[in-house]
Amino acid sequence: MTRQEKTRTMTLTFAPPSSEALPLQVIEADALETWLKTQPDPVCDWIRNTGFTASLGSTALVPDPQGTVIMALAGYGTPGTRARGRFHLAAAANTLPAGSYRLEGLDPTRAEEEALGWLLSGYVFDRYKDQKPAKARLIAPEGVDAGRLEVIAAGEALTRDLINTPAADMGPAELEAACRELAAQHNAEIGVSEGDALLDQNFPMIHAVGRAADQTPRLIDMSWGDDGPALTLVGKGVCFDTGGLNLKPGGSMGLMKKDMGGAATVLGLAHMIMGLDLQLRLRVLIPAVENAVSSNAFRPGDILTARNGLTVEINNTDAEGRLVLADALALGAEATPDLMISMATLTGAARVAVGPDLAPYYTDEDAMASALDAAAARVADPVWRMPFHTPYEAMIEPGIADLDNAPKGGFAGSVTAALFLRRFAGEVPYTHFDIYGWNPVAAPARPKGGVGMGARALLEALPEMLSL
After folding, report:
1. Where in the chain is the domain with CATH 3.40.630.10?
2. 10 Å Cβ neighbour count for 311?
3. What are residue 339's DSSP bridge partners?
4. Of 189, 206, 188, which is closest to residue 197 (Cα–Cα)?
5. What is the CATH number of domain 150-465?
6. Any idea where the Cytosol aminopeptidase domain is (predicted)?
7. Which residues are catalytic?
8. What confidence tens digit (pLDDT) does each residue in 175-231 have?
9. pLDDT tens-digit map of 379-389
10. Which residue among 86, 189, 312, 322 is the one 20 to 30 A from 209 at the CA level?
């Protein structure tokens, strides 16, 4: 088996309960002296001699007089230092020696976040090079739903793996294969429209964007569940984006393997929904294409007719993601689901606005936004509501066609892209995420590379959003 053919065998699971597990005492910096007063003098002397101050992310091992380690300490800093990050105990998971640990002294309201972070600290992307995951394993804290967190961690790992895989090994065909594997795992139904069949089945913009690539464009359609409200997830699956004839410069092309991050995040969320057996009817739509350069590539100035009949003037072939999403959204709207959500690595403007760590989203549904914002805070998956600012509709109307895929002027690029997509969602309650899908700097539980954004917040909010 080649490195490229390697399949993941790692699982992100909690350690089984054991009386031999080492206690891991979580201590805030301003509580250290109080805690030391409850300990024997040899322990106090050892801690003071090691210089442990309970700063955020610090660890210490405490031995007995014979040199056997009897406990570990994890510094939990101060509220101010914790506010600047998340998954703080995941740093301990990466520094403690191999073994099983049970948490003591952690605020129960932080247990779920920290337990999930510990699981995610075990993630490595080792398809092309051997990597060493954290070897310290955690026993699920009391009151935490261990099975639920393991499903969530597996969904996040799926998202990361798909984004991290380079386009040579994650083109439209491989993305389809990943969808089929997920469907088989959860007994979901799946169908694929591919190549010229896209024209026959009225997906003209998906075909136009992907027709120049060696791998044919396709629309992947997966369904699961027979009861409950209907949820449709639409994920942008541009497996590589050269920019088309409006070719990107090299510096902008380097991360374009992640341009299918919307599809990857949708699939991770779908795994969570199906793995937790939520009582809803799930549909996943992924237009999978590569935006390539060839003699038959779509051109600036072309006017395309979308599935719903709207015409679109192409003023920049590098604004292709909204085109493939448009056809998929139009299909999704035809079934009038109770909620439709799109996720896409759509605009650089969103990154300029909120940076790489926030997942900006758009919705006209105030109740959904309230549920989503509250859920995001509970599960440490930050999101930020952006405006569907209707007065900007004129900016996406070029005159020669119904819509412009790349309005001139450079203003409100993420907003105008979202408004473009809203034209294809019909009357269905609709939420759009303009995510980054990449962690540029390693952080606890979040190594540099592909990352899910907004999926856990959505999972937490769905019961309220859909009245489950």
Report:
1. 150-465
2. 13
3. 231
4. 206
5. 3.40.630.10
6. 316-323
7. 248, 322
8. 999 999 999 999 999 999 999 999 999 999 999 999 999 999 999 999 999 999 999
9. 999 999 999 99
10. 189
